[in-house]
Amino acid sequence: MSDDEFGQTGHPLPDFAGMSGSFAYSYQREDTENQFRLLGILSNGNKETGFLWVIPINEVVEILEKEFFVN
What pairing do the DSSP bridges indicate for beta strands 51-56 and 36-46? Predict the structure, then answer.
């Protein structure tokens, strides 16, 4: 697997089928209070190219507020 634009090697995922709508998290190895950070919601992907599209969580919250909670 090749390096990304940050010089980091990606992690292969076993399967993309049925993962849409799942939460995407990041993990930090440092000893912090919370090592996980919610990035967004998985939207689409292509196993052959090794890409997943993630809708950022702030956009998800914005859509939910606008569509369901604005008077």
Answer: antiparallel
Q: What is the per-residue pLDDT across 22-66, written as a single tens digit (0 to 9) for each?
A: 888 888 777 678 788 888 888 877 667 777 788 899 998 898 899
Q: Is the pTM of this model over 0.85?
A: no
For residues 47-63, one letter each, b for 16 or more C-beta atoms within 10 angstroms of the residue's C-beta and e for the rest, the string is eeeeebebbeeeebeee
Say how many C-beta atoms besides its own lie within 10 A of residue 16's C-beta: 16
- Contact yes or no for 11/40 (Cβ under 8 A): no
Amino acid at 47: K
CA distance linking residue 31 with residue 64, whole number of Å: 33
